[in-house]
Amino acid sequence: FRMLTVRTRLASAIAITTPAVPDIQWTEGGEKMYYKGIPLSFDDIRSIVHEVQDNLFETYEALTLGADVFVAHPAIHDDPNNAEDGWNFCKHGKNRDWVPDEALLLRAILRNPVLRKRYITVDPVSGTWYWRSDALASWLNLYSKMQLDLLVALELNTGGPARGTEMTALLACN
C-alpha cells in the first residue's frame, strides 16, 4: 500500500507541475486563432455579430407585428426592486412625460383586423372576445429569444470583460 501511495503522490506532482496546452493559440499573423483546436478568425467573429444583429431586427419586426409601436425615449427609468404585479417601466414617475400609452401594443392588436384575428377569438354565441393562448405563448417565446439575442449582442459588441453569464441571471422583469 505504501508503494501505491508514493506513486500516486508522484503522479499528482507530475500532473500539477506539467504545463497544460493553452486553450487559445494565435497564428503568426494575429488574424486567426485556435480555440481548443477550433479555428476562429476575426472575420468569423464579424459575421457572427452581423448575423446576431440581423436576427434581432427580424425578431423585432415579428414582435411588433408590423404595427407602429416604436416609442422614442430620452432615457428609460425602472425600479427593479418593485415586485408589484403589473409593474413596468411605463409606471415609473420619471417616464410619465414621454410614455405615450402603456397599452400601445394592445391597442395596435385591437385596431388591426389581421392581428385581432391572430390573437383573439370570438365566441360565436356570446360574442365575447378571448385571447388565443397558443398565439400569446408563441409571442412570449419569440420575446424570450430576442432577450437572449440581445444579451449575446451585448456580450459581442461591448469592450468590457465577458460577463454575459452573470447578466443572464439578473432580474429581467419585475
Description:
The protein has 174 residues and is mainly alpha-helical. Strands 1-2-3 form a 3-stranded antiparallel beta sheet. A two-stranded antiparallel sheet has the order 4-5. It is elongated, with a radius of gyration of 26 Å. The mean pLDDT is 82.
User: If you average the pLDDT, what whole number results?
Assistant: 82
Distance between the termini: 60 Å
The count of β-strands is 5
Give the helix proportion (percent range). 40-55%
The shape is elongated
Instruction: Provide the gyration radius in Å.
Output: 26 Å
User: What share of residues are in beta strands?
Assistant: 5-15%
- SSE succession: HEEEHHHEEHH
Secondary-structure class: mainly alpha
Count of individual helical segments: 6
* Largest sheet report: 3 strands, antiparallel
Describe the strand arrangement of the main beta sheet, using strand numbers: 1-2-3
Which segments are poorly predicted (pLDDT under 50) over 5 or more consecutive residues?
A: none
